[in-house]
Amino acid sequence: MDFLVHLAKGFIGMFQAGGAQFMGLAKGILPTLICLIVIVNALIKFVGEERIYRFAQKTTKYAILRYTIFPILAVFFLTNPMCYSFGKFLPEKQKPAFYDAAVSFVHPITGLFPHANSAELFVYLGIASGLTTLGLSLEPLAVRYLLVGILVILIRGLVTEWITNMMLKRQNQSIQKAT
């Protein structure tokens, strides 16, 4: 009988923990995200969607800009996780690579711009505490994180775009063979 009581408590406890987690999100990041989404969409309406698309096209015309400047702007201004919405300004075939670049940049930016991904700040601060214990400056670390991050997002963006293009070609070949 104790086993069933323990099982029932564990079962309902799982849902209570889920509810507590949900309430934590409802009190924390969800209102922030909703406000950010509203403001960004309002800004896009005020500026004009055509102008935003033209700016995005100029910023993403070349792969080196598409996987450096564009994700940097997205992460800096919209922060994590809203930054991924910048992908809506790209053609479908470039969205996976943009997402890969943006998601790879949310950590390296925290050293210089902690607002961009405050949830990842604990990782940077953990490493930084070791340096401060040794009496070393944090600024060179933050700059190196940023520079290496930019290089990594460029490489990841290019590789993911290449893989996406290969997969799209294979998919098109499969469709042509089927018809």
TrEMBL record:
GO terms for cellular component: membrane. Keywords: Membrane, Transmembrane, Transmembrane helix. InterPro entries: PTS_IID_sorb (IPR004699). This is PTS sorbitol transporter subunit IIC. It comes from Shimazuella alba. It holds the Pfam family EII-GUT. The keyword Lyase does not apply. One of its GO terms (biological process) is phosphoenolpyruvate-dependent sugar phosphotransferase system. The keyword Transmembrane applies. The chain crosses the membrane at residues 20-44, 64-87, 145-164. It comes from the Bacteria. NCBIfam families: EII-GUT.
